[in-house]
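Please decode residue identities from the backbone states below.
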């Protein structure tokens, strides 16, 4: 008779932890956004946004479409490496677009993966679908971390690597080292004799297959391409807003570190954290806070528009493919 009570208490504790996590992420989003807004003149930010050259809209949106297609392809490769399933292109595009769109409004970008996990679990089960989402996220974070380390090196050479920019770069370096060690661990002769916790052993095996074997070899290059397209979008928006910096390479380096900060699952879809990081980072290049905030808002809004459009297109594509089948 006591077992249900124990289970109920455990369930209540998990629910409270989730609620605390959500409340923390909402608080972080509000605090970071409030800090960024307090450092800017909202009227000037609105005026900066009003100056956005509409001629940049088409290339930015087309690049967003290409980015979604690349992300869908990456997930196909990861799913095949983890579970052996050949996910149809239409399904991969639809579920990735919906997942990204959901992640923009949920208390964590990772929670958007629930859409993909739920869609895939009908074919490969909960365990494999969850592992595929984890491997996909780790691959994306690893590629971003690689770019972040390189960006930090460039800023250091230019004498612009402040402490605020150095901390994300150090986290990125730790991520790269950890993933590289995990992915190469199965190649060590003594790996089979090492008693790893089951969850860790499965993750190591997934990373090994998902990055270094078969279709998995496409995952890291695709991840780098996805992030480079994000940088290109942000650069186009910066040009459309009329931002003036002395070195485009330094602007891109700061943007990489901003994206690294925004990727941390501590806020709602990266909102607030990205704006604050953009204001702090671009200040190193002499960009006014209003212009930095305008760029961040324009980039975030573009993501919503692209994700919504791709979600609608993906659903229509999948429906047509289902009828053809």
């Amino acid at each position: 008779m006591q077992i249900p009570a124990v289970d109920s208490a455990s369930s209540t504790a998990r629910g409270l932890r989730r609620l605390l996590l959500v409340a923390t992420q909402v608080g972080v989003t509000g605090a970071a956004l409030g800090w960024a807004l307090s450092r800017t003149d909202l009227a000037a930010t609105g005026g900066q946004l009003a100056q956005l050259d509409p001629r940049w809209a088409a290339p930015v949106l087309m690049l967003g479409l290409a980015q979604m297609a690349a992300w869908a392809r990456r997930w196909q490769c990861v799913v095949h490496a983890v579970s052996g399933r050949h996910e149809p292109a239409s399904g991969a595009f639809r579920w990735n677009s919906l997942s990204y769109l959901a992640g923009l409004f949920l208390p964590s970008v990772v929670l958007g993966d629930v859409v993909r996990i739920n869609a895939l679990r009908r074919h490969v089960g909960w365990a494999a679908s969850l592992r595929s989402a984890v491997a996909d996220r780790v691959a994306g974070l690893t590629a971003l971390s690689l770019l972040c380390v390189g960006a930090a090196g460039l800023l250091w050479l230019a004498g612009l690597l402040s402490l605020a920019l150095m901390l994300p770069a150090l986290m990125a370096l730790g991520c790269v080292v950890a993933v590289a060690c995990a992915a190469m661990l199965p190649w060590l002769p003594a790996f089979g004799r090492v008693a790893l916790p089951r969850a860790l052993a499965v993750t190591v095996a997934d990373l090994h297959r998902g990055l270094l074997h078969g279709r998995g070899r496409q995952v890291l290059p695709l991840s780098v391409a996805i992030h480079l397209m994000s940088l290109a979008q942000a650069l186009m928006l910066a040009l459309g807003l009329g931002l003036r910096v002395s070195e485009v390479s330094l602007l891109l380096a700061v943007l990489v570190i901003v994206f690294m900060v925004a990727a941390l699952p501590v806020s709602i879809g990266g909102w607030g954290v990205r704006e604050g990081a953009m204001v702090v980072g671009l200040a190193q290049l002499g960009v006014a806070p209003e212009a930095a905030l305008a760029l961040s808002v324009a980039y975030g809004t573009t993501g919503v528009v692209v994700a919504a459009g791709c979600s609608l297109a993906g659903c229509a594509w999948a429906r047509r493919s289902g009828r053809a089948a």
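Observation: The two ends are 52 Å apart (CA to CA).
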